[in-house]
Design goal:
Strand content: under 5%
Number of strands: 0
Number of helices: 14
Order of helices and strands: HHHHHHHHHHHHHH
Helix content: over 70%
Distance between the termini: 17 Å
Shape: globular
Amino acid sequence: MRFVIRRFLLFVAALLAISVVIFAALRILPGDVASVMAGLNAPPERVAQLRSQMGLDRPLTVQYFSWMGGLLRGDFGTSLLTGRSISSMVAMRAAVTFPLIVLGLIVALAIGLTLGVVATLATRPALRSVFHFVAIVGGAIPALWGGLLLILLFGRGTGLLGILPSQGFPETGWGSFGTALVSLVLPALTVGIIDGASLMRYTRSALGDVMQSGYIDQAMACGYTRRQAALKVGLRLATPQLVSVVGLMFAGMITGVMVIENLFALPGIGAGLVTDLGNRDLIAVQSELFMLAAFFLFVGFLVDLLHRLLDPRLKHATQRGAQ
């Protein structure tokens, strides 16, 4: 319980620090939404009038605590440009981004865990070298280039096979379930293949370390074959390490899909954030960045708790350190 409380306090402290950094960084940027709304040729008096109406001429400390007070009440504010609730805007965008991330993670797990185990169990040096080469090349592919390759292969209207849509998301959202799901296939494959190659290397490394330990020998002495010992004993012992990697990979996809959303013209959080930043809608941008950072930290918090739950050695090590 002491570990949970300490970790939670660190989570809260990190949130506060990030809120200050986000607020200060956005105020350093030149221009604001008042300048965008007034237009390029607007007189300074008009820009100053709009800035006063929006409360942008208040002291920065007043603006910061007003923003934080709204967050504590669950009010993420209102877009200065569109007048829409930021919470509703993020909810609509999250309905695209989070299913994309989940699909990408499923693809990454299917590729990374399967090929990682096969690469570990491979006994022929040539085959192990092939898996090593695939992991390095797959993980080094930029997301933009990988997405373009998939569009050229499978994109409807532009690709060689032309079987999958490569642009857009249905206006009715998940009301058109089949169309919405198919529109996320190519983006999810782009994210999943690249992250799956990285996960393959982590799986091979974690499982390889376990295979060198005495646990596998003991399992084989009990009648398991090498393959059975790897799948039933090795993977279980490697799970704590893999949980940490998968958790951080999931959190990292939040920012990683920004490029993918823009490439495939998906109205997700990443694409919306880029648009709001271009319009200097600072209230919307800072709230969206804060929610992304909070989600990233929360996933890290859960991963730490899960890692400690799965690996009792961490608890014993902490107790010995406290004595």
